[in-house]
Amino acid sequence: MDAALQKLLDELYADGVAFDATQNDRLLTRRNLEPASAGLLWSLAQITGAREAVEIGTSNGYSTIWLADALARTGGRLTSVDVTPDPAADENLVRAGLRESVRLHRADGGQYLGSLPDADVDLLFLDAERTEYPRWWPHPLRVLRPGGLIVIDNVLSHPAEVAAFLSLLRDEPALSGRTVDIGKGLHLAWRVG
User: 149 to each of 4, 24, 105, 125, 178, how far by Cα in Å?
Assistant: First the structure.
């Protein structure tokens, strides 16, 4: 990753941590992905050769920038979806020089996934309201291409909130998965069939 972009990401992360500390309402916080988790997500996007990626949960665009930079290397495209977009996401993508390569979409995650064609997504990153994920089923699986990857954040920090969704993933024979103890916990589920 380019040093200037890494510097911007470091600034955005520090700003997000400071901002979150001033908020009493969890829904108003930025809840940025931890840098180690973001780095793994960046690597996974490239390792899998992702060409079509969807992020649910844009916030201020911190993880969006990580993904957009990775997809610039694979020739891919990113759509980032949020129910309540933060205007800072657009500004931060411009600062990163990546605005033109990201489609920012305002929608409910489940409705957006429901609008996509079958087997259209190589990488699906879920970092939104965790208790909503089961309601979106079976769209996360349906939109995933064979060999595609679902990445879910906060599985170790909020296990009760993701338990029902992880159970759906475990019970699906077309998926194989593993939780990685990094940041607040990432669960990786890849489509094997």
Answer: 29, 34, 21, 8, 11
DSSP H helical ranges for the chain: 3-21, 35-47, 62-74, 87-96, 109-115, 133-136, 139-142, 159-170
DSSP H helical ranges for 22-154: 35-47, 62-74, 87-96, 109-115, 133-136, 139-142
Q: What is the pTM of this model?
A: 0.95
Task: Supply the Cα-derived Rg of the chain in whole angstroms.
Answer: 15
Average pLDDT, the chain: 94
Angstrom CA distances, 161 to 128, 153, 156, 167, stand at 11, 11, 10, 11
Backbone angles phi, psi at 116, to 5 degrees: -85, 150
Helix axis angle for 3-21 and 62-74, nearest 10°, is 160
Q: How many CB atoms lie within 10 A of CB 120?
A: 14
